[in-house]
Design goal:
The chain is mainly alpha-helical. Helix content is 73%, strand content 0%. The chain is elongated.
Length: 125
């Protein structure tokens, strides 16, 4: 019995399925926006720690200090970045390797900027 005899009506062959490619833009937008949000968190954390005026500006809830504003604003940056990128790349196929590298670099920046010894080094403490 050959494969063509086993095929049921309505089934598609693997070749015809692979001819239809789905755009990876929305997934890439989610990945890159996560990196952007992570970097934003680090930048706002450093700025809030280094500058008293920014610390006061980012204090949304007094018991938690500037952390309340840092995290809130970083989430807003992440959501805006995701929305903008998802709209621009809705039907696009983008280079995922480049998007992943950029997102990883941005994530590393965010982690470094929230690491207290590195923050102190940048501030000269």
């Amino acid at each position: 019995m050959s494969m063509s005899e086993l095929k049921t009506p309505g089934m598609t062959s693997p070749k015809s399925v692979s001819d239809e490619t789905l755009p990876n833009g929305p997934g890439a937008a989610a990945i890159l926006s996560a990196g952007i949000g992570s970097a934003a968190l680090g930048v706002f954390a450093l700025a809030g720690d280094a500058f008293p005026a920014i610390n006061r500006l980012l204090t949304f809830y007094t018991p938690s200090g500037a952390l309340s504003g840092v995290s809130t604003v970083a989430v807003i940056v992440w959501l805006v970045a995701w929305y903008v990128l998802a709209r621009r790349w809705a039907r696009a196929t983008v280079a995922m390797a480049q998007v992943n590298v950029a997102a990883f670099v941005l994530l590393a920046v965010g982690v470094l900027l929230t690491f207290p010894p590195f923050m102190d080094l940048l501030q000269g403490k």
